[in-house]
């Protein structure tokens, strides 16, 4: 058990009394940032969305040691599997693998509020009808949550069930957001969080450490911004370069690099120290399938990285929140 940061597993165990596991589904959404009149997607997006490993049936034959495969990396995985099939597959896997008893329905892949409120209601209702969900999680962009959508999401809150919105921020630097073609500003993120909280929704924030041009100041600024808007939780990615992305071209041209494990450990420790201690840490490292991964190719797996981080913070006498502040601005 990790003791230097506020782990998600501890939060769930304390709240529900038993381990609780997410069932991530792809409900066939797209992303407004990939529309023709936008940017063609964020610079780090390879067009596959984000979905749990056990739902990637087309990739089941690949292992962590697999070579990078440019053909497979450019293949958009089928997104039209029914939620019913995905939920059944996820529940079966989690019961068998972890003896799971309680589950969370996680609309995980792409922008899960990018549709009409009427269609969204049908999609969410169908998912919830297939399982007794302890919580509902909807991952989306901060520029895709108009008031009718927040009203809809809040209608699923019950005394027994929290509803979470997971917003992709990535960085609290507007300059960085422009470089990676996010298509929204820090101010848009802060407004979305405030409105979500006004609707009684819980909020998780996604960030990436190691984006082009960023260093200690940007890592601290992002942590402080998350503190200021009072995000309930955070998910951290270390920067990965995948095939079929704008960052791939920059990486192959030598214009950008990715952090080594040592630099990633340093950055993660720094970020955690400036993050409020009561914010839940849902994830601290990326796990991109190796056949889609250009860089970093030499990096420990999740369990080893987290063990190294715990050892580092114990050795340094540091922990989440010991340097926390509460600033949030739009400095570039």
CATH structural class: Alpha Beta
CATH topology tier name: Transcription Regulator spoIIAA
Distance between the termini: 38 Å
Which structural class should the secondary elements be placed in?
A: alpha/beta
Strand proportion, as a percent range, falls in: 15-25%
Q: For the CA atoms, what is the radius of gyration?
A: 19 Å
Spatial strand sequence of the major β-sheet: 1-2-3-4-5-6-8
Count of structural domains? 1
Low-confidence stretches: 58-62, 70-80
Mean pLDDT over the residues: 87
- Tell me which CATH architecture applies here: 2-Layer Sandwich
Instruction: Give the ordered list of helices and strands.
Output: HEHHEHEHEHHEHEEHHEEH
Largest sheet: 7 strands, parallel
What count of helical segments does DSSP give? 11
Q: How many strands?
A: 9
Shape: globular
- Helix proportion: 25-40%
How would you explain this protein's 3D organization?
The strands form two sheets. The protein has a seven-stranded parallel beta sheet, sandwiched between helices. The chain has a two-stranded antiparallel sheet with strand order 7-9. Helix 4 links the parallel strand 2 and strand 3. With 332 residues, it is an alpha/beta fold. It has eleven helices and nine strands. Mean pLDDT is 87; it is low at 58-62 and 70-80. The protein is globular, with a radius of gyration of 19 Å. The protein has a single domain (8-314), classed as Transcription Regulator spoIIAA (2-Layer Sandwich).
């Amino acid at each position: 058990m990790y003791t230097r940061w506020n782990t998600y597993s501890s939060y769930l165990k304390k709240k529900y009394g038993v381990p609780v596991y997410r069932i991530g589904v792809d409900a066939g959404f797209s992303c407004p940032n990939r529309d023709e009149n936008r940017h063609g997607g964020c610079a780090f997006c390879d067009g596959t969305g984000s979905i749990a490993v056990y739902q990637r049936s087309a990739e089941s034959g690949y292992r962590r040691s697999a070579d990078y495969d440019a053909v497979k990396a450019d293949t958009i995985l089928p997104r039209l599997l029914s939620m019913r099939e995905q939920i059944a597959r996820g529940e079966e896997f989690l019961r068998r693998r972890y003896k799971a008893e309680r589950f969370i329905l996680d609309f995980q892949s792409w922008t899960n509020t990018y549709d009409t409120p009427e269609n969204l209601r049908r999609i969410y209702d169908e998912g919830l009808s297939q399982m007794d969900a302890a919580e509902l999680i909807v991952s989306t962009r901060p520029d895709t949550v108009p008031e009718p959508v927040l009203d809809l999401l809040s209608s699923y809150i019950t005394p027994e069930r929290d509803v979470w919105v997971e917003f992709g921020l990535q960085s609290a630097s507007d300059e960085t957001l422009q470089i990676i073609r996010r298509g929204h500003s820090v101010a848009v993120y802060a407004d979305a969080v405030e409105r979500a909280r006004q609707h009684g929704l819980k909020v998780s924030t996604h960030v990436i450490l190691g984006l082009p041009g960023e260093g200690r100041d940007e890592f601290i600024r992002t942590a402080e911004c998350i503190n200021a808007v009072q995000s309930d939780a955070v998910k951290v990615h270390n920067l990965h370069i995948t095939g079929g992305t704008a960052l791939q071209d920059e990486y192959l041209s030598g214009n950008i690099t990715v952090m080594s494990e040592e630099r990633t450990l340093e950055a993660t420790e720094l970020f955690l120290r400036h993050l409020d201690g009561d914010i839940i840490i849902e994830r601290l490292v990326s796990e991109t399938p190796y056949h889609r991964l250009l860089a970093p190719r030499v990096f420990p797996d999740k369990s080893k990285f987290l063990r190294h981080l715990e050892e580092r913070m114990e050795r340094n006498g540091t922990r989440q929140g010991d340097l926390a502040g509460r600033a949030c601005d739009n400095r570039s």
